Amino acid sequence: MPNISRKEFIQSATVALVAGSSNLLAIPAEKITVGAHLWVYASKYPPNWDCTPIIEQVFSDLKYASIDVLEVMHSNLFHDNAVDQIGSLSDKYKLPIIGSSYSGDMWNKEKHQQIENECGILFEKLNLLKAKTFGITVGDANHKKTPAELDNQAEVLKKIRAMGEKKGITSNLHNHTYEVVDEMYDLKGTLQRIPDFPLGPDLNWLIRGGIDPVKFIQLYKNQIVYLHIRDQYKNGEWSEALGEGDTDFNTISQALHNNNFSGIATIELAFPRDFTPTRPIKDSWKISRNYVRENFGW
Description:
The protein has twelve helices and seven strands. With 298 residues, the chain is of the alpha/beta class. The protein is globular, with a radius of gyration of 19 Å.
């Protein structure tokens, strides 16, 4: 028998164990942290999307579903007692805060000082919560951004990234559809100006923006540090839980494995407007978490 290390033996045995499974195409060698973004709760609180009134339910539901970490929204963190409240719940439910999402009109230079001030506050609080990630949405101008607006966008993104790094927090670009329509005009415009900026793609928004997520993974494999995963039916309506829609997650899973994804994967549930859930949300989280375990091996 060849002389192999214990790690090589465990890896080869794991692959052999799942080789016959049609759902679990490949098991990554490294452990992937699986988180949850709380949008499905925040969506009930327009226009600021602040679900702080039910934040304990968020922790309770996600703990029930065996989620590893929680990604909050910046609106949750602007309360004076946010660190104490969220930190206490994180300890109570043993559910770490991995980071926060943040949206601002980066393309608008007049908003830069406000954005920098807000990010400064957020990084201070995230650091106290021992968070590590910061997902940035650059803002929709409702028109094709000019070269000058893309310059503005890149300018403030560089500052935000540097601010986060001082607190041990890695920023990533989180896309909606407007960054990736028109052959990824907006995102490519940013990356032309900051080629090495980490990426945190939302795979469902990629699909809805006409981008093949497998090709995106192959193209940007060295920059993807974070993922948002959501499911939908063929008609574009979001499914209640991950794995209940028609997204080809088998192919996506294989692409992530083949391209050595080693970042953080976050489930983000979203319901259509006026949708009435057929089950408690905590059960949809549990179904989704089990699906990620079975299909992605995480």
